[in-house]
């Protein structure tokens, strides 16, 4: 029997989470990832304009606001996307809730939902199905490979790759990260160069060590599960099957072995 320590409620505050239903009655937290594709298809409301070019760089900057796509008539004043202060002036009206698609970003298919106040920088590439929340920044060179759920006030950083993963609100991976088959809790942060490895080189399924025993996940691919407020230092690597509780810290350059780490752990 899987330990209650792996219940999503022990790792994440889901009390006001928009996507709480994804986690309810899931059993072990990694089972949420197998639910993700069907969940996305149920709840997503793709909102890319029909006229937007697919699978090639956007030729001009677009602003999406109040159900319309603006090619001109706006002025980008800037600000901090994650803090909700990125300002755009449209027809004389100032707003922080417009979605900005900068020229040079690539939308690979229409199955993409972008929340108000979010920004896609030049060179970012997003494949669907992907749901990106409000006031989230997808930076230059980011690669979002599909089956991704990214919450509000998040950062998918410069040359960061994410696939088949979840980032809850305020999760940040600002620079050179890899996020595969993983879940990042609220207010988690990946230091520059962090890699959440998801595939064992032995060709076997992923197991998680708990109190000297091995818990079988039956998954060939599983990255890391990071509880709320957990931080990973620069150039750290988690091996497949790492579960870090809330408020954990991983020292820079650390290779984290598969297993469960209780709340407040300092891993080095």
How would you describe the overall organization of this protein?
A hairpin with a 2-residue loop joins strand 4 and strand 5 (93-95). The protein is mainly β and 268 residues long. The longest helix has 13 residues, at 31-43. 8% of the residues lie in helices and 34% in strands. It is built from 3 helices and 32 strands. The chain has helices at 8-11, 20-23, 31-43; strands at residues 62-65, 68-70, 74-78, 87-90, 93-95, 99-101, 106-107, 112-114, 119-120, 125-126, 130-132, 137-138, 143-144, 148-150, 155-158, 161-163, 166-167, 172-175, 178-180, 183-184, 189-190, 195-196, 207-210, 213-216, 224-226, 231-232, 237-238, 242-244, 249-250, 255-256, 259-261, 266-267. The two termini are 30 Å apart. The model has no long low-confidence stretch (mean pLDDT 96). The strands form 5 sheets. Strands 2-1-6-9-12-15-18-21-26-29-32 form an 11-stranded mixed β-sheet, with no helix packed on it.
């Amino acid at each position: 029997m899987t330990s209650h320590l792996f219940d999503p409620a022990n790792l994440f505050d889901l009390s006001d989470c928009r996507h709480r239903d994804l986690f309810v009655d899931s059993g072990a937290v990694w089972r949420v990832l197998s639910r993700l594709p069907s969940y996305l298809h149920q709840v997503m409301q793709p909102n890319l304009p029909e006229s937007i070019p697919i699978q090639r760089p956007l030729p001009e900057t677009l602003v999406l606001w109040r159900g319309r796509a603006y090619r001109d008539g706006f002025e980008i004043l800037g600000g901090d996307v994650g803090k909700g202060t990125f300002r755009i002036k449209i027809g004389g009206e100032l707003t922080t809730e417009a979605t900005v698609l900068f020229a040079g970003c690539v939308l690979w298919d229409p199955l993409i939902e972008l929340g108000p106040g979010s920004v896609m920088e030049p060179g970012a590439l997003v494949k669907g199905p992907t749901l990106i929340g409000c006031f989230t920044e997808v930076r230059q060179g980011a690669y979002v490979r599909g089956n991704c759920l990214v919450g509000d006030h998040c950062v998918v950083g410069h040359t960061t790759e994410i696939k088949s993963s979840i980032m809850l609100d305020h999760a940040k991976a600002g620079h050179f990260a890899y996020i595969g088959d993983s879940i990042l809790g609220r207010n988690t942060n990946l230091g520059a160069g962090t890699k959440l490895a998801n595939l064992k080189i032995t060709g076997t399924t992923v197991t998680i060590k708990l109190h000297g025993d091995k818990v079988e996940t039956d998954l060939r691919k599983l990255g890391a599960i990071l509880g709320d407020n957990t931080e990973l230092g620069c150039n750290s690597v988690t091996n497949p099957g790492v579960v870090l509780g809330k408020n954990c810290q991983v020292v820079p350059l650390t290779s984290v072995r598969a297993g469960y780490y209780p709340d407040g752990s300092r891993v080095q």
